[in-house]
Amino acid sequence: MGQRAAVRPVRAVSGLLDHMVEYLTRQMASHSSRRSFAGRAGAWLTFGSLIPTLPVSRAFAASPAIQARGKPKPPTPFASQAQTTDPTACNYWRYCAIDGYLCASCGGGVHSCPPGTSPSPTSWIGTCFNPADGHSYLVAYRDCCGQDACSQPPCLGMEGDQPSYRPQANNDIIWCFGTGALIYNCSTSVIVGNAT
């Protein structure tokens, strides 16, 4: 007799929950159509599939690039051989995507044209890793035009080089159009901003 008395309250609570769920389901069904339910379910599924594409901080993505000493690992072969002291050498860190003669070796500077030449109004871009501070920078390369080519050996950096149908990242184009003289002399490299 004692067991039956203990089972009755459990059945009563279970029955009450059944009736409440049935009542709420019937209320929802009477106030909404199948189409609206399917539309809402589709919207939630679509929204749920977009969640991974939302912009989030991906600080953990940089962790494989950090070595045991805490120094950033160079991301490319050019960056592993790059130096920061001699801007007249082809392995200077800013020259990762340059193609041509260095203005620093031809009477100009890293970011200035030699006398008698003028910078092109357009440029191509590259992202170069600076081994001194461990950051990557967006670098704009401009051709200096108006005099014959410099007599120094050319440098060829291929990082990020794209085909000519992507001209903003193609280093094979002579960018002297718009300067009044289509004669190429040398190329400069100007840091535009931080790329990391």
Automatic annotation (TrEMBL):
Originating organism: Acetobacter fallax
Domain of life: Bacteria
EC number(s) given by UniProt: 1.4.9.1
Protein name: Methylamine dehydrogenase (amicyanin)
Limits of the Methylamine/Aralkylamine dehydrogenase light chain C-terminal domain: 83-193
Catalytic activity: 2 oxidized [amicyanin] + methylamine + H2O = 2 reduced [amicyanin] + formaldehyde + NH4(+) + 2 H(+)
Pathway annotation from the record: One-carbon metabolism; methylamine degradation; formaldehyde from methylamine: step 1/1
Pfam families xrefs: Me-amine-dh_L (PF02975)
Primary location group: periplasm
Endpoints of the signal sequence: none
Subunit composition and interactions: Heterotetramer of two light and two heavy chains.
